[in-house]
Amino acid sequence: KRLYSYDKNNWNDYSSPININVGTTIYAKSIDKYGNDSIVRSYSAANLSDALLPTAYDNNTSTYDADVKR
């Protein structure tokens, strides 16, 4: 059985993809056929703009790859 939670107290069956908002932490665990719980894992949805680097184009056509799709 696969389970997910937003607070590690109330667990829901994971049967289809779920959507989470930026800044949300979600927890996941599984229970085997003998009733043993797995280790609880967590995932935090980061703001994608925090992970993006500044624009790489420097107006120098000799360093620009024209094959890059925008």
Structure description:
This protein is mainly beta and 70 residues long. 6% of the residues lie in helices and 23% in strands. It has 1 helix and 4 strands, in the order ββββα. The protein has a 4-stranded antiparallel sheet with strand order 2-1-3-4, with no helix packed on it. The protein is elongated. The mean pLDDT is 79.
Tags for this model:
70 residues; mainly beta; 4-stranded antiparallel beta sheet; 6% helix
What's a concise summary of this model?
This protein has 70 residues and is mainly beta. It is 6% helix and 23% strand. It has one helix and four strands.
Number of strands: 4
From the alpha carbons, calculate the radius of gyration and give it in angstroms. 20 Å
The parts where pLDDT drops under 50 for at least 5 residues are none
Element string (H = helix, E = strand): EEEEH
- Average of per-residue pLDDT values: 79
Helix content: under 10%
Q: Give the N-terminus to C-terminus distance in angstroms.
A: 42 Å
Report the portion of residues in β strands: 15-25%
Number of helices: 1
The best one-word shape is elongated
Largest sheet: 4 strands, antiparallel
Structural class of the helices, strands and pairings? Answer: mainly beta
Major β-sheet strand ordering? 2-1-3-4
